[in-house]
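Predicting holo structure, nicotinamide-adenine-dinucleotide bound.
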Amino acid sequence: MSDYRQNYIDGTWCDGGAGRTDVTDPGSGAVAGEQALADAGDVDRAVQAAARVDRAGALRDMRPMDRGRIVQEIGRYLVVHRDEIAGLLTREQGKPFWEAQREVSGAALYFEYYGNQAATVEGRSIPLGGGYFDFTDNEPYGVSAQIIPWNFPLEIASRSMAAALATGNTCVIKTSEMTPLTGAWLARAAEAAGVPAGAVNIFSGWGHEAGAALAAHSGINQMVFTGSVPTGIAIATAAAQNVVPCVLELGGKSAAIVHDDADLQAFENDIRWGIYFNSGQVCSAMSRVIVHESCHDEVVDRAVKVARSLSVGPGMERREAGPTMGAMASEAQRDRAVSMVEQAVGQGARIATGGRRMNIPGAFMEPTVLTGVTPDMAIARDEVFGPVLSVMPFRDERQAIDIANGTQYGLVGGVFTRDLDRATRAARAMRAGQIFVNQWFAGGVETPFGGYGKSGYGREKGREALWNYVQTKNVAMKIRG
Ligand code: NAD
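Done. Tokens:
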């Protein structure tokens, strides 16, 4: 592939009405490639194409087993090209090459899982007495519009695309203008797998232009968005004008409650993955640790050890899985995280390690641990979306739950203890869509994921996600004679 990526609309590769943008490699500051940018006219063509394919029934009328096979084929294509895609992903997003490889494999899993589920979206028969036969059917909405963020550009696009196609919808996908380059691989995969032309459209564009045009388009039938709360509200507002249902996944400020009987040695691994994976740019990151006061200092020491063990630098030089961290997605995101740390220090928090920009080219930030954080500070309430862990002590269980629940978010939560009753009480009391017990990020593509509160609504992953892409039709039949 060349360094310039076109958009993929109605089965053809095309330039964008809004011109091109340079995509910056955050691991070096150099240009990683150029991307065509869609304007409202391009968005309209993509939606019209997807609507045309939907009306023709190319996917919705296909036998689900056959549709599922095509969906699975998309995943296999990604696996075959894993290392090429991973290299591009590292250059546009900054993550270590081995993390990018895992993202490609993770993206492929969605196509495998939802391809398998295609034939299982069954309806039911409702008894109405002898004179009737009644059944429900689950029909695709039609055109699924999907707006993708920059933290996991391939995996998040695959998550919604796989579920939408498996249930018979067509897709119009806008990638982030910061990380648009790998989108072309998804389009190629769809083409190679035999997805009908026009059924999958993938383009990039500015949020306020192409994103806003897509969210407000009267031809879309369903909307999926992952990103920030303000943008989620704007998108849901636009969709509401057309009475279009949304799935919103808007990040979090997720907390781990660590009790005095927790396995603190094992918890080091949760710190490593929970807050330093993808440089902390994970919506379900473990950004707060609420730890019993008796083991607060030990947990801080262990967190500092984990943070300092990470080798931070260009993702392309970090090819083997291990204690490494890459760049953040942009210098703007890095500077935002650093300034949130500085503000926290101004309010009385202490830096146990890290907290600064790194003195090398690119968007690098030191893995950071903050102590002395109190629940009222911005750092304890707002999403940093960076490698910054806030540690807070608690005295009793009720206080720990109150601190954990004390933000506007509710994406995930965790509890670390050997006591089953404690774990169960916390799992019930924490207001979040997914609770991890004794392992952060336990679960996978099979388990439902999504938020309470301002973390959004609707569920991704698992069978629950399928119900966001179908609507119920009831057929009530009078039997004569
Ligand atoms: P954003 O929500 O503005 O952007 C995400 C996507 O929405 C991009 O594709 C963008 O082009 C599009 N978009 C932006 N404005 C739009 C609009 N008015 N209409 C339609 N689409 C629009 O996120 P951001 O500004 O890049 O990042 C800001 C913060 O959001 C981050 O610091 C982080 O806290 C949070 N974030 C969360 C996630 C997550 O996975 N939950 C992902 C990315 C960012």
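The chain has a mean pLDDT of 98.
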